[in-house]
Amino acid sequence: MIGWEDVYKVTVAMVPLYVALMLGYGSVRWWNIFTPDQCDAINRLVCYFTLPLFTFEFTAHIDPFKMNYLFIGADAMSKLIIVLVIAFWAKCSSKGSYCWSITSFSLCTLTNSLVVGVPLIRAMYGEKAVDLVVQSSVIQAIIWLTVLLFVLECRRANADSYLDSSIKNAQVLAVESAGKDVEANQLEIVESTGPSFWCLMKIVWLKLAMNPNSYGCVIGITWAFLANRFHFEMPSIIEGSILIMSKAGTGTAMFSMGLFMALQEKIIACGPSLTAFGMILRFIAGPAAMAIGAIAVGLHGDVLRVAIIQAALPQSITSFIFAKEYGLHAEVLSTAVIFGLIASLPVLIVYYAILGFLN
Hints:
mainly alpha, Na+/H+ antiporter like fold, 14 helices, 78% helix
């Protein structure tokens, strides 16, 4: 049973996040230290340096030979359920769209497992349960954040290609209207329907190849396999070089979110209706899908409880950083992170009490 001491431990883990957030907010709104362009530069620092190293650091220290594959299977099944529901919604609803499908997937599935989940789950179910939360964080970094990067790059590449097409077509029209004896085969005319699938994939994979977030988790899990298979440790000079930046990952991410908040007219940038929508997806839809997936693969006891609890953890900070970098509903993700951190403790305690009645 969670006592006041356990609540205090979780609070101790969460308060520093708000300190970093308020410093970022105040540096723009109250002290005028950073300009909007400088805020974008700080977000790119987080996206391309501190977060990849943070991901590598915790991924490299797991033991992949001791992972609970039923637990991982339940997580994968819950994500599949969410993808199918979102795809059905996007196809059948007038409000459905590709962009909102990406954001909805982030809100339903991507959690802040390490910062909030570890102390909370330790207080609820002990150290063995903490191992499960770390495993889910690793899988999230290796698979689901990479999938998120992929679809965001697809969206960006598609948008850029359409923009290039519009510019080139405008140039062609200007040439034709000017007269210019130019033969048709000398004019560069694009198809108005956008790039071909293989052209789009080439652009996306090249972008991913240049994105360090694509490498952090892959190199980390590769190191984890080799280190645990052959029983050797990372040289201290390399580990120190990684830690000096990775330790700043969560703090700088929250600082960047504070900068983003300060640049908005309102703290709740997305409005009350979208805030409620985000909270429903985060604390109800995500855990419900996980419960279905966990029961389907045969999880029971504390493992089942941990699976549902970790699916109800607050929103991943990384999802906001990516949303800001790629210009997709960053205001919704920032609100989900902030309100998720505020609401998570009472919500998760309620979940813990309800799940305590399950055999």
